[in-house]
Design goal:
By secondary structure, this protein is α+β, with helices and mostly antiparallel strands. It contains two helices and five strands, in the order E-H-E-E-H-E-E. The chain is globular. The mean pLDDT is 90.
Length: 98
């Protein structure tokens, strides 16, 4: 499935509906999700858009990659599966083991 896109460099003020509207001219948008910081709830400047098929996703990449959106250059590419990471430590390194 190559119809899920990763979008980097999105303006911090952009809403998910606005992001969906940007991609809609290139095909049917199934979903649009902006990733936000867990603690502050503010946008982290990237997100994902799922198009209804691979051809529409490719059309969106070709039309929107390296274009200006709200004063920022966005990068659009096929989303890759998330890599497995170590669990986060709650103490964030403030604990000393002697």
């Amino acid at each position: 499935m190559r119809n899920k896109l990763f979008i980097a460099g999105i303006p911090y003020s952009l809403t998910e509906q606005e992001m969906s509207d940007v991609f809609a001219p290139h095909g049917s948008v199934v979903s649009a999700k902006i990733i936000s910081d867990r603690e502050t709830g503010k946008s982290r400047g990237f997100g994902f858009v799922e198009m209804s098929n691979d051809d529409e996703a490719q059309a969106a990449i070709e039309a929107l990659d390296n274009t200006n959106l709200g004063g920022r250059t966005i990068n659009v590419s096929v989303a890759r599966p998330m890599e497995k990471r170590e669990p986060r430590r709650e103490d964030r390194g403030n604990r000393r083991d002697y």
